[in-house]
Amino acid sequence: MTKVTLIDNRPNGEHNIDARAVNSKEARELYQKRAQIYPKLAHGFFRNLKWAAMIVLLAIYYITPWIRWDRGVGRPDQAVLVDFEHGRFYFFFIELWPQEVYYITGLLVLASLGIFLSSALFGRVWCGYACPQTVWTDLYIYVERLIEGDRNARMRLDKAPMSLEKAGKKLSKHAIWLLIAAATGGAWVFYFADAPVLFFDIFAGRAAATAYISIAVLTFTTYTLAGMMREQVCTYMCPWPRIQGAMMDKDALSVTYRADRGEQRGPHKKGESWEGRGDCIDCRQCVAVCPQGIDIRDGDQLECINCALCIDACDDIMRKVDRPTGLIAYDSYANQTRRAQGKVANIRLLRPRTILYGILFAFVGLLMVYGLATRQTLDLNVIRDRSPPFVRLADGSFRNDYALKLVNMTNSNRRLVIEVSGLEGARLLAPALESEGAVVANAGADGVTNVRMHVVVPNSVGGGSHRLTFTIRDLESGETATSASAFLAGEAP
Amino acid sequence: MADKRERDEVTGTDTTGHEWDGIKELDTPLPRWWLYIFYASILVSVVYWVLMPAWPMVNGYTKGILGFSDRVNVAADIRDLQSARTPMFERLANASATDIAADPELQEFARAAGESVFGDYCRTCHGAGGAGAPGYPVLADDVWIWGGSMADIEHTLRVGIRADHPDTRTSMMPAFGRDNLLTPAQIGDVTEFVISISAANSRLDANNGAAARGAVIYQEQCAACHGVSGAGDRAFGAPSLVDDLWLYGGSREEIRRQIELGRGGVMPSWEARFDSGTLRALAYYVHEMGGGEPDAPAAPPATTDAAAPAPTQDAPAAAPLR
How far, in Å, are A191, A265, A314, B153 from residue A318 at the CA level? Predict the structure, then answer.
């Protein structure tokens, strides 16, 4: 704010004016440029854990569509397949139909509860180790490091003027990144069609347009998000860091700088006394290795993905300066308070919150296992014709019409006896299906067979709505499925 | 306001200077890439205006250089659909009820096509699902005025009833009251007799004396078409009087009124409107509503002698409904 004294010719003479240019230097920039982060390679337990997680997860992603699973002649033999065209989802021994989408819902509920539980126990392990953004970014940084060298070399290279060598390095880096991106998109489409066939179709130009579009889109997103955006995705785009706050409590583990031990920080020369100062020698190794480019010593922050690489970096230094490791470690807010009060630190994994998440996780999991174990392969849907509500026949009896959907989820054709019960005098009428006094329908393999069914009930039934039950029974296995419906009858004309 | 801007210690960011009950708003800068995406979106919209139909003008709209048009696409889709359906309609035109029943694909097609055409052209009078209305026969039941085999139904569809087709199905019940062919008392007697021979007798309880007098008049005036026993005759489109289903209403007054007025409805001939595949689909749909009868192997009802109408009516009544 600037106070300006003006002299003008008006009678009042002087005015104090609060004037400031909208584009003054004090006004901050509205948009922030991304600062390039050059993560240094860390060595240690957590780095190894991250390598292992990356290899396992990438292996699962790339190999899964190629696993075969025999389901019989004429059926897809891909272990994991989302077949949109025929409305089927195959997962090893499980085969789901569109109406069983609640299993997917259950899976998503399990995933949510799993991430809640892991967050309450160990903080953002998902973000640090398993999130695709983290895994692919890690892979991209690995490639970057392979070609351009570690942190310092990369920084030098970026500052250096353009040269043949620099152009060569940059070109080869981006070429490999694009290759990885294309392979990422390429693997994704294998989950939606027969992988070996699609593999050759893609290269032969025979695959569906959706396959190419999916590959193109995923190539673009992988290249951009893992190559360019990196930590920006976690900081600005992802909702999870915001939700995260609600899952954490003071006992949840997260990567923590033990300020009580570290402060006062400051440079330390070999042989100097450690008395009266903290263990942190302000070497900034924790900042150098951080893929998010933050300083863990500033405390818990939204940007931190809890990858624990700073723990590795710090432990390395602590060993070199001959201080105990664990200046940065998995720790809880409660422990920091306890230490400050001179109490014994203590990690509590069993807490009401974690127990509740655990029980919920187990409950939903068991429910799904139960559902899958007792899953019916025969189902019946009955839809009553509503117009006309009923038909009066010449002999005074009433007729209602129904559309029956015979759902056969097995791989073989089945002969099904259709019966009706629960209403006295009710008899089925379907001349085309009558055989030896029973109504028998053929239900094709792995499909829904529609059958029109008439039910006739004598006049004595009386007006109003009556309950009745349809049953289908497999002639061979004896398996049954039932469905309740209504029968309407009217008063005298 | 602006002079309240201050630096927030925790984030190192300025506040906007806005404050509500002590809550201050951080002026966190947006990432620059976000700005670029915003500019790119604006660019995309400009490109879209050039390529696609976009701006409304006084007369019409900007067409876009790609020439995209939903109307043209829909018309093309409809043409494609029609040509895709043609082979099925051709198959239908040569299929009997048994053929259709034996072929699930054809059956589904016939049902769907029949239902669609029925909904457009027939439902207005005959009701959804063939529910019928007073004066418009119920098609879902097992009572047929002109015959309920698929061949009969299709013939009725082709020629219509009292329509302008040269071979249209025609019958005319005299208006015994309006044209003074019978006295009101005689009509009352006939009404009682009709009730006495019908299933409605159980609820309307005919006057026996009047019915006995009416019986004589019935044999003179009505039996020629409706049959001696009242079983009706499909050759004349004369409905059965022995059941309790009434085209013009089943109360005593409604039955009497029909004798007085002799009403007969008109159904248009559809032969010129639909191709034979569509007619076959429609006939199948109506036949499958629940009351369809099997195709008669031999003599069609049209050639049956009027003097012996009973067997024609008895056959479907005795058979298990269809």
Answer: 47, 13, 6, 96
Question: Number of A:B CB contacts under 8 A?
Answer: 95
A contact residues 327-386, partner B, Cβ 8 Å cutoff: 385
pLDDT, one tens digit per residue, over B214-241 is 999 999 999 999 999 999 999 889 999 9
**Chain B residue nearest residue A3, CA to CA:** B3
- With CB atoms and an 8 Å threshold, state whether A20 touches B2: yes
A391 to B290: CB separation less than 8 angstroms, yes or no: yes
Looking at chain A, the domain(s) classified CATH 2.60.40.10 span 378-489
pLDDT tens digits along A213-223: 999 999 999 99
Which one of B141, B144, B258, B287 makes the best mutation probe of the A interface by having the most chain A beta carbons within 10 Å? Answer: B141
Strand partners, A96: A89
Placement of tokens 């093309």 in the chain: B76
Q: Any idea which fold A378-489 has?
A: Immunoglobulin-like (2.60.40)
Q: State the pTM of this model.
A: 0.74
Largest CA distance in chain B: 113
Q: What is the Cβ-side half-sphere exposure of residue B59, based on CA atoms within 13 angstroms? A: 0
Residue A392 CA to residue A154 CA, distance in Å, equals: 87
Chosen for mutation from A392, A398, A488 (greatest number of chain B CBs closer than 10 Å) is A392
How many whole angstroms separate alpha carbon A468 and alpha carbon A489? 13
Residue-wise pLDDT for B165-186, tens only, equals 999 999 899 999 999 999 999 9
Q: Considering only residues 270 to 309 of chain B, which have any Cβ-Cβ distance to chain A shorter than 8 Å?
A: 288-291
* ipTM at complex level: 0.75
Residue of chain B whose alpha carbon sits nearest to that of A427 = B320
Q: Residue A99: is the preceding peptide bond cis (ω within 30°)?
A: no
Residues 246-265 (A) with a CB less than 8 A from some CB of B: none
Distance to chain A for B33, nearest Cα, Å: 8
For B277-317, write each residue's pLDDT tens digit: 999 999 999 998 888 888 866 444 444 444 433 333 333 33
- Beta carbons of B3 and A18 less than 8 Å apart: yes
Q: Domains in chain B, start-ordered, CATH in brackets?
A: 72-169+266-318 (1.10.760.10), 184-261 (1.10.760.10)
